Model the fold of this input.
Amino acid sequence: MIRNRLVAAAAALLLPLSANAQEGSLAVTTQTADSILERMSSHTVDLTYGISLQSDANSLALSQTEGKPGAFAFAQLNYGSFIAGASWFNADFGPANPASGEFDWYFGIDHDFGKVNVKLIADYIDLTPIDDYNYWEYLASVGYEASPSTSFTANYMWAPNADNLNYHYGIFYLTALHALTERWSLSGTVGHRNISDGVFDDYNFVDVGVGYALTPNVTLELHYKDMDIDKSICDAACAGKFYVSLNYVGFIKGIFR
Done:
């Protein structure tokens, strides 16, 4: 059913990554979605894992690699509604930040109440190879299955001590996902970032994309992302552009019983 694919994409693959990290795959086949839903309702410890190769490691319209290609990988354990996981991506934040990659270590609750999905996540952001910029970020989201082919999610991220530099940010964004067929998906995100670092102004951003499921586990996506910020502040990092990604997501049920 298309419905299963939408629920799974909204609840399991839009992972609780940091505002720096890349979003997960949006196009998922029915077979993959059924596996996710079965995992989420079980009483075993199950594993979700994946990798994404991207022409630009872009998140919330801001490139994490100064416009260059990126790679992202994650592994997540699930026990009923409880989740814990880790993710990694390569990074280039410019000369002011020497980090070459980011690990995210997160845990929280991901639970369905009928057609409504709720997530509450705490995420420790570990920038490598240095530790000076590590900090905590928190995510709350509510998703709603409006129809068998359409879902919406409202998300809020909050970092009270971003980059360990005594400034904060808040990010609110809405995501819509629509399944056209068993293989084709459309997605759209609009959001606003409030930031107090004295360099960036608050800004709005947009992301529109199309996904195609090549196999039950492999998807190909095309996105366009942009923001209404002064491009001279961050050059290639915040330029509006198209990018493509190739994504793999796998599942192992009952690794611990």
